[in-house]
Write a structure and sequence with these properties.
432 residues, mainly alpha, Tetracycline Repressor, domain 2
């Protein structure tokens, strides 16, 4: 268990995350060449709706990673292969359900995020096409979790680069070359995600060698399926509560004037940068801690926690320093509106605090996912959820937008503290 091993797992994830904003910029840029505002808004709102839905299914990646890592640590190769098959089956089934239920899903989404009639019409056209790659997109979560558990994050990077590369090339061809507009962006993404599933299956092909993956008695073992269902449902509840807090932050911020809303939108990108930077080491924690727990090696588990947390702390220091000294420059890069720039600077100190106070919660998420202590994750998120809403109730009216940001930071701290309280029980589980 070395620093090199941690970095070998984490760095490809950090690079992979860095490619995500590039695709969003290209999607926006190609439809922006049409010279109309509605197509830009349609692609934006359509992508947000699907991203929010897919994000809920993130439990498949996290649950698969933790359970597979533990099976690897226990040298249970049959269960390792069975988890790959289960992850694929769950992902494909969930995506198929989305295709069948697309009408009520899209209706509900537009009720929550209404737009002009023109934008909604174009966004609906976009979503009707994009939804057909839902089975592939969600199944890829299972493949990614399985690869992370094996510490094969370079393969995850290859998969991400393939999908983004195909998507960008087809965006340019379909929209700028063929003039397909919003539909062209959607078709490009469908082809990228479906082909990505093919690439992903090739990357995990070793999981289909031998007879393990076809052992249906193991794949459909009731006891194991029940445990997997509990793990995934706990993570899903936790993820839904987390998403409610973030979405409510955006909605509550929209009650202020347009300048404040715009400043919040700029500043929340700082949180996304922090999350992407921490993800690599949280993923490393998932793999290494899961393997240590599967091997019932308490010393190895503790060293995994210390090494991954050390590098997580390095990222926190770097980001805190960068935001403190270059945050104003980053704000100016993201917006050219003088009033938004000035107001965002007023709230910038919250972003300087965010990595320092929120970073532990991201690292502990990875640690608890690797240990599949998902009941603790669910319960501690419930406690933090209540603390967030109490904070909003107490701080929003007297302190306005400062109170809103304070409530969000308090939420991060509560997540970190409550999970830290449960950490000793996690270590003790390694002895059983």
């Amino acid at each position: 268990m070395t620093h090199r091993r941690v970095l070998n797992v984490a760095v490809p994830i950090v690079i992979s995350n860095a490619t995500v904003p590039i695709l969003g910029a290209v999607d926006t840029g190609v439809v922006g060449q049409m010279g109309l505002a509605a197509p830009i808004g349609a692609v934006g709102i359509g992508a947000i709706i699907l991203t929010a839905i897919y994000w809920v299914f993130g439990f498949l990646r996290m649950g698969t990673a933790g359970l597979t890592a533990q099976a690897l640590g226990a040298r249970d190769h049959g269960e390792v292969c069975a988890l790959l098959v289960r992850g694929l089956m769950i992902g494909l089934a969930a995506g198929a359900a989305m295709v069948v239920l697309q009408v009520p899903i899209f209706w509900a989404a537009f009720q929550l995020a209404p737009a002009s009639a023109e934008v909604e019409s174009l966004a609906y056209d976009y979503l009707q096409i994009r939804i057909w790659s839902g089975p592939a997109a969600i199944a890829i979560y299972g493949l990614t979790g399985w690869l992370v558990a094996h510490e094969r994050t370079k393969a995850v990077l290859v998969l991400q680069l393939w999908m983004n590369g195909v998507n960008i090339v087809l965006d340019l061809w379909f929209v700028l070359g063929l003039g397909w507009g919003v539909e062209g962006v959607a078709i490009a993404t469908v082809i990228a995600e479906v082909s990505g599933l093919g690439v992903g299956l090739w990357l995990v092909r070793d999981g289909f060698k031998g007879e393990y993956w076809k052992n249906w008695a193991v794949v459909f073992d009731r006891v194991i399926l029940k445990r997997m269902a509990m793990v995934n449902s706990d993570i899903m509840i936790r993820s839904v509560l987390l998403e409610i807090c973030f979405v409510s932050f955006l909605f509550l911020g929209s009650a202020f004037d347009d300048t404040t809303l715009a400043a919040n939108q700029v500043l929340i990108q700082f949180l996304f940068i922090t999350a992407h930077g921490m993800d690599g080491f949280a993923f490393a924690a998932e793999a290494l801690i899961g393997q240590a727990l599967g091997a019932k090696d308490r010393g190895r588990l503790r060293r995994s926690v210390l090494l991954t947390s050390f590098w997580g702390a390095v990222v926190i220091v770097i980001l805190t320093t960068f935001f403190a000294f270059a945050g104003g420059w980053l704000i100016d890069v993201m917006t050219k509106a003088p009033d938004v720039q000035a107001l965002a600077r007023e709230y910038l100190f919250w972003m300087v605090l965010a990595p320092f106070l929120g970073g532990p919660s991201w690292m502990l998420d990875g640690i608890f996912i690797g240990a599949t202590r998902t009941k603790d994750m669910r319960n501690m998120m419930l406690v933090s959820f209540v603390i967030y809403w109490v904070s909003v109730w107490m701080l929003l009216e007297p302190y306005g937008n400062h109170g809103l940001w304070a409530a969000l930071i308090i939420f991060f701290v509560a997540r970190g503290v409550t999970l830290a309280v449960r950490y000793p029980a996690l270590e003790r589980a390694a002895d059983r």
